[in-house]
Design a protein that fits this description.
This protein is α/β, with parallel strands linked by helices and about 350 residues long. It is built from eight helices and 17 strands. It has an eleven-stranded parallel β-sheet. A six-stranded mixed β-sheet has the order 4-6-8-10-11-12. Strand 14 (about 230-235), helix 4 (about 255-260) and strand 15 form a beta-alpha-beta unit. The protein is elongated, with a radius of gyration of 23 Å. This is F-box/LRR-repeat protein 15/At3g58940/PEG3-like LRR domain-containing protein. Keywords: Membrane, Transmembrane, Transmembrane helix.
Amino acid sequence: MPPSALRFCPTLRAAHLGCCLFPNVVAGQVHFPNLQHLTLRLVTVSEHSLHAMLAGCPVLNSLVLKYSYGFRRLRINSQSLNCLAVHYSDHPDKAEEIMLQELILENTPCLERLIHGGPYGDCGMRVSVISAPKLMLLGRLTDGIGRLELGGTVFQVSLAFFYFALISFVVIICPFLCHCDIIILDSYIIQGLKLIRMATTMRSLKVLALFNNALCLDVIINFMRCFPCLEKLYIRTYASGMENAWADKPVDRLEWLDLHLKRIVLGFYLGKKPHVDVASFFLLNAGMLESMKLVVETHQVNNKKWIEKQRKHLQLENRASRSAQIEFVTFHCFSCPKDINELSEPFEHTL
């Protein structure tokens, strides 16, 4: 990007930079005294340059990073930032691209929305929210996050190890094992973020989105304990789910269940027992629930017999909130004219 592109720095209020390499020498000299909205799309920028650029934006309101690389750590200290959106991918165009591995919200007194809008790109990422007292919307938190720190509360990825045997034909790939008939190998599956330490609750948070591929109710409930005033919960999964220890146990009265939770969206609902367990847990315990949307496969939406069967499994006649409405819908891909960070209800459209 040529230095001449920055000649409007003193008066610039919104900037969308795309498909360029941000030079270090320019970043250290840039000052945007009136810049409120900054989007970097497919931009390669060094960690030092990115931090220098943000330091030169004293009234920045929103920051959007869309598939931008070149920095491993992003540390945010801003008295004005209201929205941070990170769109990321595990597969950048160039294999040697440096990817974000650590996001730290150190001092963000005005931050209300923290959005991860990319497909998956947070494998092993560490996210630390040190100070964000007004945070209202958070997500999607995925199973791929290595560690999540919310004040003194810590979640860490949980791995379940299993063993399997490979018969001797694998020696074609591993010739140095050519004398083995059977090889025992170990691998693992990601079960989700496990609660390691509970020391802080965030009462400001109203909206949470999770990409919980294992669909583990224990993981979901532990997040709810951290956000006792939660009103809207969005859960996305592609797996059949796992057995849930909470499903058949009596539940102690929890503030978020009794007083606050109003809307749940679960996709993609397959009607299998783990899915039924998660949906029915909230139906049977959320006393203020107003609506639940279950996103199902297209061919099931018009299958009246299947829908009626699911309603029986969900025990709708015993729901805690008699006014709660249950809706079975199909997922529709669409082109939205706005970025996810500009939507008032971003997870309604991007589940």
